[in-house]
Structures are given as C-alpha cells and as structure tokens.
Amino acid sequence: MKKNQDDDDEDLNDTNYDEFNGYAGSLFSSGPYEKDDEEADAIYAALDKRMDERRKERRELREKEEIEKYRMERPKIQQQFSDLKRKLAEVSEEEWLSIPEVGDARNKRQRNPRYEKLTPVPDSFFSKHLQSGENHTSVDPLQGSCLNLGGLNTPYPGSMTPGLMTPGTGELDMRKIGQARNTLMDMRLSQVSDSVSGQTVVDPKGYLTDLNSMIPTYGGDISDIKKARLLLKSVRETNPHHPPAWIASARLEEVTGKLQVARNLIMKGTEMCPKSEDVWLEAARLQPGDTAKAVVAQAVRHLPQSVRIYIRAAELETDVRAKKRVLRKALENVSKSVRLWKTAVELEEPEDARIMLSRAVECCPTSVELWLALARLETYENARRVLNKARENIPTDRHIWITAAKLEEANGNTQMVDKIIDRAITSLRANGVEINREQWIQDAEECDKAGSVATCQAVIRAVIGIGIEEEDRKHTWMEDAESCVAHGALECARAIYAHALQVFPSKKSVWLRAAYFEKNHGTRESLEALLQRAVAHCPKAEVLWLMGAKSKWLAEDVPAARSILSLTAFALNQSCPFTLSGLF
Questions:
Q1: pTM of the model
Q2: Where is this region: Disordered (predicted)?
C-alpha cells in the first residue's frame, strides 16, 4: 500500500520532463538519505556558493547598470522636475505673488449646489381650503400646476380637532393665533421694561457680556458632570470626614458655573472636617472678601498652629498695617515658622527688620536664610559676630563661610578671603560634609556675578582640584573654564586658567587658550602681560611671539612689534622670515 502511495506521489509524465533538468521531481526521493548523500550535498552547496561569490561582483555591476539604464529611460517624477525646482531659487517675491491661484476644477453642479428651497405657506391658503371643505396638504406634481392646486390627497393632521376647526364648519381663526403670539411677545418684553413708558433697563453694551457670564465655563459632556456629582455624593455620604471629597465637589460645581452651590458645599465641608487645613483654605478661596476673612478667622480658632492659614489671612488684608498685625499675631502662636518670619520681615523697614531678625534667629537658629539676612543688615563688626554665631549653630552649611568671605572682601580685607575659604573646606570635612566640586563652582559663579572677585577666585583655587584624577586635570579644567565663560563668569574662568598655568607652565595649548580668552574678554594690557609670561615659559612657540607682535602693531606701536619679531628670531635661533604684513 505504501509503495503504491509513493508511486502516486512521483509525477513521471512526459509533460513534467525536461531534456536538461530531467523530471521536476527527484527520481530518488523515495530512497534512503545516507551520510554520503549529506556529504555530497554539502560539497555541491559549497561549490555553488564559491561560484556565486566569483560571479557576485560582475552580477552586482550588471544589475547596477541595468538599474541606471532603467532610471534613464523612466526617471522618477522628482527627477524630472529637479531642474525646475532649482530654478525656483531665482524666483523673486513679486513673481511668486503674481502667480495666479489654481482654479476650481469641480464641475458646475458641484461648485454651485442647488439647495432645496422651502417657501412658507400663507394663512390664507389654509383658510381658503378649509372653507371649501378640502383637507389635503400634499401636492401631486402629476396633477395640474401650482395654480390649479390639484392632487391634494393627504389628510391635514389635526384639522378635525376642536381647537383648530369646528366640526362641520371648516373655520380656522388664524388671527387669534397671531394675536396670542403677539401677546406672549409683549409679556416677555414687559419683563425687561421700566414702569416709564418707552424706556428699558436692558444695557445694550453689557447685554452680551451678561449672557456670556450665564454660560457655564465647563465644555464637557453633561452626562459626565452628572456621573461625577453622583460619585462625589456617594463619597461624601460614605465618608463625610474625608476632606478631598468636599473639595472636589466644590470645585466641580465651580467649574460648571454654580458658584453658590460650591460655597455651600465647602462650608458644609468645614463643619464636617474642622481640622482640615485644605478645606478651610478652599472655603476662603471661594468666598468673597469680607466673608473670606470671617472664614479664615473661624479657621484660626480651629487650627491655631496652621502657618498656611495665617499666610492666607495676611493676603486677604489690603492694608499693610493690618498685614503686620496678622503676622505678628501668627508669630505669637507659631514662633518656629521660618516662612512666617520671612513674610513678616519683608513688610518691615530696615531698622525694624533688623530687630525682628534678631528675634527670628533666636526662635529659628537652624535657618541659614535668617542668619544671612541679619548679617546683611548689621554693621561690619556686628555682621562678623552674627556669622560666627551662625557657624556655631549650623556648622555644615557652606553659604555662611562664603558670606563671611564676601564680607571681608567688601571691607577691604582681601588677605582674609583665602584663609576663610580654606578654613571652610577644613571645617566642613571635619563635620562630615562632602565637598561637591560642582556646587562650589556654582557658588563661585554667583560671587563673580555679585562683584566679589576675590571670593570667587579663592573658591576656585580651593576646589578646582578636588575629586579629579591627575591625568584628567588639564581636560577637565579647560571644560570648566569654557563653562564659566558660557555662564558669564569671566573672573572664574580667569582664575581657572591661572591655576592651570601654574600646574602646567610648559603646555603651549593652555597658554594659547588663556591668551585667546584674554583677547576676547580681557584688555590689551592683560593680554600682553600673559603673552610675556607665555614666551618666557614656551620660547619655541612662535605663535605666542606672533600674537604679542600683532597686539603691539594693533596698538600702533610698530617699534615694539619689530623688537618682538627680532626676539622671536633670536629665540628660534634663525633669521627672522616675518614682516609686518606676515602677521595677518
């Protein structure tokens, strides 16, 4: 049976035979596939692969030529218009604007659609046919013309009702319908009219504005609002002491334009959640002026330690004295709040602010901002004492040390700046503070922008080498200098270049970067001083000599430029091949 099935699978007809390839199928497919057959197939496959690789380059070249030939015969649309697209660059604006617009390619029927015209039927038409006993309202176009009015075969709906026509009489009083309509219009107009005849209280300018104010601001689906109301109502009933439910309900009504409903809900929320700070603040936000003050006063009675409620109470006051009174009352109850002290100090005059800050640092000794603000308002000697106390209370903050350095620089004691910064690094490390190099460089940039040049340079010198491998120092320092230049901190960049030149005095690339920096951002005197030092350390760098000669020439000091060129030739141990024109 199996043998017969194999015979059926093999198609050995003459139609399936080829003189070169033989039969399409394999004559020996039914035979066993042994290891020798597998090796033979592998050898033939390797030979085919080898022959294919030999012909691959020639085949690919032939395919490429065929593709190019095909593209030449049938180019793409983009290629056909490439020359025209290039010519568009020569089109002027006037020529472009003068190009006519593309016409409407639609046919006449599409361009001018004929809409269905509906003509209202006069009352006389109905009255005429009711009197004649006809009760049809549709016209058959196959019967008569419009003048004949034949073919009315559909009963007029409602024509036999007592309100419109008395049975058997065919009477319909259209005048009464018109009078009723006019009466209704008069009633509506009388609602917006004065008792004085001929006048009206409608403001024509603000009428549309009033209408817009009546429109809810929410543009979503009404069904979504109803679902949200039901959901929030369920939450309030299930857990009435949950503050977010009351806040969300009030805001939903506010968004939909029902402000009074929102106020009622949030006031109900204050009764159910009297210890919730957020509910009281939301109630104060929704209520108008005096009512909001009363709400905040009630909130203070329930939450006498809430800083945010005191801040809100101060914001509601319009008079500065009232604001001060509220904040001072708040500080009596919450004396440890830095935010309250800062808000109160901002409203005071400098002398009163200094007195208040003296009390503030006693109540909040760990606030760096209060200590620094007090130091700014004190005299030089008192400011030093204040900063020393601040360092005792907060030994882990770097801003106090930097402020002390800026204070000494501002009073002319620049020799103390480096000592203070060095002591700051040592003290902070002793207290377990990690010296973050990037943060200190940012502080130096801020000092540079504030005008404290000595302080920023001292900070750069102290932290520039922290946390950098020895082989990465040059690359990292150059990147830091470029970053400082990008941030506008030129003195920081100058300090970085100066430190790099001390570490790498024989590096021509460092001298060149520093020279270009002075050329772009410094003065001619600083550039020439730097170049004088550069040629002393790198006498074989002729570009540095030429930069110095060019600087002298630009300053119209030709003899000095010639002397520099002569020194260049002497330093390079050769005759000078340069002229003044060769400097450019």
A1: 0.54
A2: 1-35, 50-70
